[in-house]
DNA sequence: TAATTAGATTTGGTTTACCAATTAATTGGT
DNA sequence: ACCAATTAATTGGTAAACCAAATCTAATTA
């Protein structure tokens, strides 16, 4: 089993300009989330309690109700709050410690650490492809073959095919028949594409090399060969990962050059 | 390597009442997302284009601007739109096919398929623990030991310790040093806790049995033994999963009983 | 006294109005 | 005809206003 990604050092790859940009003030909603966090961790808001009315919170925090609602919406997505229409918003029954851990992450969840992104994608897809090899239907195979053809056509015409590549991987995620894993992969893909395109990670030869790799992944899924599918995908992603690292190092040098 | 989860059939575990509830009309924001999807897939909105102004969209869809904003916010999280203040909201450069695939998922992303949830958690944590075994710092070990102690104390007092259990797993996620994977695990945890508590998945003996399992996970992480960490965690989660399946089957029988 | 119910109040849901920044258009000068 | 500067219109950001459902209160009745 191949897990070469383990142990790779996290390289700080932010350029100077990006670093500047990332100092942006946190959004008003995130500020409110921070305030709510303090209310909870300080014990003023116990698990199970009802939150003060949105209007009250808005006034208390000196901000419009829109932001309070946005913050509540976000915390609701994480399962930390539950709002009942015309009744009130309630703190989940989770303990303070758990909430504290999670809220901290709600605020700082972003996808601009490219290495973390690549790594997460790597593992998630490996998981997905194993499930796909086990559960794929005939329809899934159809979808995969079509996506593979689209990719080959683009490549053979000498065009960029980053998105067709991703589409192939999306079909794998769908074939996993696990909606949660699929959703998580789907969340990452736009950012992956963005970074790959921006940093011109894929050379022309890379595109052609990927074709047989895709084919062997598909073949393994067709044959329900879990191990083969895992290995084929790992090899495929490892190639990309190494190339992207090289691209980033080059980028780093460019960015750190005096202007 | 243990991957017993593969191939387990997806059991429909929704109770009658929950099924009823899930027929709820999709939120106004999701409806708008659907409309936007159609605008994009029909070609009226090309990748890179600027969206009509929020006011225009609101009027066109016959709804308040808040909902349009909520929809845009959601699509922005998925990287499908980018809004520039005082300028406009722009469609990402992704191809129509990719956007179509993703938007479909944006609407139906929910975490109420408990089996998918458990399975995703299983794989994500397995990934996390491998990374944690490789990258953990002394501080991480401290955190893990503390979490483990909290758990043991609760259990030895005969109390419920579902959250302390989760806290231990949260610390593992943090030790992975991958913010994306950590965030994803954190998103799942409240729903996991909710389901576990609601379905009384953990009996008293289960709590005690988990103590040595936790210890061996910690030991493997301390020793940077990746394989051991993976195996220990897999065993731990497999135990829980089987118990939870049993719990669910029991639940199913209860729910399908005539009332 | 206890249960009930009509009304007032508070809630989140939804829409609208206002603001500052940006962009487009127009004007005036060259 | 072209360019610069000023103005007008449009944008998303923000706050406030309105609505209907849910809740609480208290008077009323059995």
TrEMBL record, chains A, B:
CDD domains reported for this sequence = WHTH_GntR
Q: Which keywords has UniProt assigned to this entry?
A: Coiled coil, DNA-binding, Pyruvate, Transcription, Transcription regulation
Q: Does the keyword Acetylation apply?
A: no
* Gene Ontology molecular function terms on file: DNA binding; DNA-binding transcription factor activity
Q: Which residues form the HTH gntR-type domain?
A: 26-94
Any coiled-coil ranges, and where?
Answer: 134-161
Return the PROSITE patterns for the record. Answer: HTH_GNTR (PS50949)
PANTHER family with a match to the protein in the record? TRANSCRIPTIONAL REGULATOR, GNTR FAMILY, UXU OPERON TRANSCRIPTIONAL REGULATOR
What is the protein name for this chain? GntR family transcriptional repressor for pyruvate dehydrogenase complex
Originating species:
Pedobacter nutrimenti
């Amino acid at each position: 089993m191949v897990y070469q990604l383990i142990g790779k050092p996290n390289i700080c790859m932010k350029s100077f300009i990006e670093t500047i940009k990332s100092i942006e003030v946190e959004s008003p909603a995130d500020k409110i989330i921070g305030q709510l966090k303090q209310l909870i961790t300080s014990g003023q808001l116990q698990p199970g309690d009802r939150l003060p009315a949105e209007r009250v919170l808005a006034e208390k925090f000196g901000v419009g109700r829109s932001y309070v609602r946005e913050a509540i919406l976000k915390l609701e997505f994480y399962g930390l709050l539950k709002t009942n229409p015309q009744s009130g918003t309630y703190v989940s029954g989770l303990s303070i410690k758990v909430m504290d851990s999670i809220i901290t992450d709600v605020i700082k969840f972003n996808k601009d650490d490219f290495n973390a992104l690549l790594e997460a994608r790597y593992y998630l897809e490996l998981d997905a492809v194993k499930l796909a090899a086990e559960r794929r239907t005939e329809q899934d195979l159809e979808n995969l073959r079509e996506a593979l053809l689209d990719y080959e056509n683009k490549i053979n015409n000498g065009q960029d095919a980053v998105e067709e590549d991703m589409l192939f991987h999306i079909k794998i995620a769908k074939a996993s028949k696990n909606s949660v894993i699929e959703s998580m992969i789907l969340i990452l893909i736009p950012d992956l594409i963005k970074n790959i395109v921006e940093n011109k990670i894929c050379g022309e030869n890379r595109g052609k090399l990927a074709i047989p790799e895709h084919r062997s992944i598909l073949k393994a899924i067709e044959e329900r060969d879990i191990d083969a599918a895992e290995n084929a995908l790992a090899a495929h992603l490892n190639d990309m990962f190494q190339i992207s690292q090289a691209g980033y190092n080059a980028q780093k040098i460019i960015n750190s050059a005096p202007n």
